[in-house]
């Protein structure tokens, strides 16, 4: 049960970081172009995953661990800095690709490290993995 909670917290925080990053990116950039449509779709996907993970944690009578403020601030500063230099669709795609690539690496590592038996937790992790892989496919056209 402890491993399940840890893994669900990882999924929750991973999806919340995607939400935070894309939300900040959309607010900072504030353009209405094709990459924004793709980013909004990703934002909705991350929202669904984080809500699912949080619900699964709460059903286990635990509280989801929120992102720490340092991670949020660092991410926000990085997004503002990168977009101040270049807010083209290619730059946004590159930023999102880096995030999804990191997400894929982390999810795969966690799936290898944790020997979970609960199919619902494994399925949620695989849904997040599929979303990250779909993100890469959708973003490649902008690079």
CATH 4th-level superfamily: Ferritin, core subunit, four-helix bundle
Specify the helix fraction band.
over 70%
What sequence of helices (H) and strands (E) makes up the elements?
HHHHH
What's the number of domains?
1
In the predicted model, the low-confidence regions spanning at least 5 consecutive residues are: none
Q: Could you walk me through the main structural features you see in this protein, from its secondary elements to its overall organization?
A:
This protein is an all-alpha fold. It has a single domain, classed as Ferritin, core subunit, four-helix bundle (Ferritin), CATH 1.20.1260. Helix content is 82%, strand content 0%. The chain contains 5 helices and no strands. It has helices at 2-29, 34-59, 69-85, 89-113, 119-139.
What is this structure's SSE topology?
Elements: H1 2-29, H2 34-59, H3 69-85, H4 89-113, H5 119-139
Keywords, please?
single chain, 143 residues, mainly alpha, Ferritin, 5 helices, globular
How do you describe this structure in short?
With about 140 residues, the chain is an all-alpha fold. It is built from 5 helices and no strands.
